[in-house]
Amino acid sequence: MSRTEVELVEAANTTFYETMERGDFDELSSLWLDEGISCIHPGWPVLSGRGEVLRSYALIMANTEYIQFFLTDVKVSLAGDTALVTCTENILSGGPAEESGELGPLVGQLVVATNVFRRTSDGWKMWSHHGSPVLAESDEEEDDETPS
């Protein structure tokens, strides 16, 4: 049974995050289109072009000893040869090792992301990634604090 286009886009999106977790820069590079790409990491300016975008991932990988993504709220929309994926990145990461050689403290972070893919002859490739930190509390928590 052949996979649907939505399943293929979901697989491309998952591969992107798994590649980051493994720190496989060569594979990560192969997941992006060759031209016209952009990336916004949380708190960073817009990065445009293959050189800038891939340099940013090399820098992140060089300074992140451990990273794991738990994706939630994944939604895929297709329009011809373009796919839009929105998701929440529940990130657990650790910085460079301490003097003792142990992994630095683990830090949790919540980021909402939009990933745009283009269909190519080699499958779905990343066109743009935009991650924004979640700073606001959830509606449920706000409701609990409403004065009566």
From TrEMBL:
Organism domain of life: Bacteria
The name this protein goes by in its record: Nuclear transport factor 2 family protein
Pfam families: SnoaL_3
UniProt xrefs under InterPro entries: NTF2-like_dom_sf, SnoaL-like
Location of the SnoaL-like domain: 9-134
